[in-house]
Structures are given as structure tokens and as C-alpha cells.
Amino acid sequence: MQWQSRQQLKFQALLSERAHCFRHNLSENERILWSRISGKQLGVAFRRQFPVGKYIVDFVAPSAKLIVEVDDRSHELRRTADARRDRDLGRLGYRVLRIDAELVRRNVAEAVARIMAVLQVGT
Fold first, then answer.
1. Which end of the chain is more exposed for a tag (fewer CB within 10 A), N or C?
2. How are beta strands 55-61 and 47-52 bridged, if at all?
3. Could you give the CA distance from residue 96 to residue 119 in angstroms, rounded to a whole number?
4. Which one-letter DSSP state was computed for residue 66?
């Protein structure tokens, strides 16, 4: 039991360290979206590249239990893994909204509108 706790602590420390690195290396699309949702621009506070459970999520609004993932083309090959991840996060009480990176690049206002629509449904 004690060994498992130490392993879990090491894992959480590693996850936090990786999240810190990711926060300083956002993709261009993540940077664009972050500029529109950071702080409380949408009425709730978002965090970027933040550990939730055993995952690091792109953006999370903890008070709304909403996770926003910006998916580039690489996610087309990872649909099964993404579905498992979404289920795991759902079991923790989070809703996951996946937004295509191309939408963020072409029409960030529409991407933000989709986030706002999900936030309104959850209230």
C-alpha cells in the first residue's frame, strides 16, 4: 500500500512537471484559443495544460467541470485512445469538448461560441 502511494506521488510530480513544460510550449492554435478564454473572459476561469486525473488536458474550467481539447490532424489516428481518455475524464465528472485546430485557426470566434454554448448548457 505504501509503495503504491509513493508511486502515485512520483507519477503526480512527473505529470505536474510535464504540464509546466507544456504550458510554456503551446501550439499556435492553443495560443490563439488561450488568448480568447484566459482569465474569466467567458465567465469562468480556465487553466491551460493542466493535470486532471492521469492526463494533461489542453484547457480546463474546474468550476464548470469542462475540458477543452484542441485536436490537430494527429488525433485522426488516435480516436480510440481519445475516446478512452474522454470516458476516463467523464468518470471524474468532466465534460470534454473537442475542437478542431483548423477551426481555431480559421474562425476562433466560432470555436469560442462552441465553448460558450457548452458552458451555458452546464449551468
1. N
2. antiparallel
3. 11
4. E
